[in-house]
Amino acid sequence: MPDAGLLLAWYDRHRRSLPWRGPPGANRRPDPYRVWLSEVMLQQTTVATVGPRYSRFLARFPDVAALAAADWPAVAEEWAGLGYYARARNLHAGARSLAAQGFPDDVAGLRAIPGIGAYTAAAIAAIAFDAPVVPLDGNVERVVARLARVEAPLPAARKALDALAQGFMVQPAARARPGDFAQALFDLGATLCTPRNPACTLCPWLGGCAAQAAGVQAALPRKAPKPQRPIRHGTHFLLTDGAGRLLVRRRPETGLLGGMLEIPGTPWRAEPWPAAEALSHAPLPGLPFQALEGEARHGFTHFELRLQLLLAAPAEGDALPAGSGLAWMAAAEARAAMPTAMRRLLALWPGV
DNA sequence: AACCCGTGGAG
DNA sequence: TCTCCAAGGGT
């Protein structure tokens, strides 16, 4: 493995300025809560997306105590649109547990917090507590696979890549600055050692890269092919009152879009719903529904969703079924608290 | 091990 | 339009 000092020297000149990073050369350890929040928010989510959302979340929930004291609807609203909502549920539950226990400062303790896996535990330990570990994320996998010219495809190659990555920590330069070394690897992977067209001529490790020497850098790391996504259909029911409010429902705590607000509708299945069949799932019986033009499309990780929308305006005073979880909410407020799939559905409605 | 779990941007 | 992918984790 090449010289860790070369990468750190490059990082000191080219590091990205990001909201969750302190000023260059800061000797003060960052707040573990902020590192935790940023790492969770960055899971499978781009830096560009996270930037403003991280700042907004932190302004609303500035520390563990504030997040622990919040109720779930407030946290869900703050996370709406970011995806992978289990992250928010775990963050919230974790804050409530940490508010009493304090923040663990090693990998094993961090790993026990829900939503913190091998990567995030290593990242927090390295960045917030100077633990001599290398967090293996997609960037580090790519960088290491190229340096060592690992031809085996992911995810099977992950263990080998992790062993190679941890090997950097035998170097005193890396051990002296574990948090900076981890973030240097992230920045290298994000700005130079990119998935396509890596900028090898600018790389501080140009001389030590086996893939570049062989001319195969752009083809690594190899990945197992992904299964194709099936299509699912649903029909939802937009009920409006005379005061600009919508009938909304909170989804079950676990599973897809768990704990988030939704427009009530049918289950999502492979076959489209004939209107007559869909109506048996309407939240209020016997209403005259009008079909809205068009279809909302939304791609999830493992299936493609196509939704139709039926519109009705219940008579004032129509009672909501007891125990249904249905509630009236102002349209703008509801939209802001909903996941993207539901926002797309609402966009079919000219009312907002 | 193989699935499940969101979203937006780049190419 | 379509594929790929991003500071992954849980089951």
UniProtKB/TrEMBL annotation:
InterPro entries: DNA_glycosylase, Endonuclease3_FeS-loop_motif, Endouclease-III_FeS-bd_BS, HhH-GPD_domain, HhH_base_excis_C, MIG/MutY, MutY_C, NUDIX_hydrolase-like_dom_sf. Its cofactor is [4Fe-4S] cluster. The keyword Glycosyltransferase does not apply. Its EC number is 3.2.2.31. SMART domains: ENDO3c (SM00478). CDD domains: ENDO3c, NUDIX_DNA_Glycosylase_C-MutY. Gene3D superfamilies: Helix-hairpin-Helix base-excision DNA repair enzymes (C-terminal), Hypothetical protein, domain 2, Nucleoside Triphosphate Pyrophosphohydrolase. Coiled coil: none annotated. Transmembrane segments: none annotated. It catalyses: Hydrolyzes free adenine bases from 7,8-dihydro-8-oxoguanine:adenine mismatched double-stranded DNA, leaving an apurinic site. SUPFAM superfamilies: DNA-glycosylase (SSF48150), Nudix (SSF55811). Residues 41-191 form the HhH-GPD domain. It is an enzyme of class 3 (hydrolase). Adenine glycosylase active on G-A mispairs. MutY also corrects error-prone DNA synthesis past GO lesions which are due to the oxidatively damaged form of guanine: 7,8-dihydro-8-oxoguanine (8-oxo-dGTP). This is Adenine DNA glycosylase. It comes from Falsiroseomonas selenitidurans.
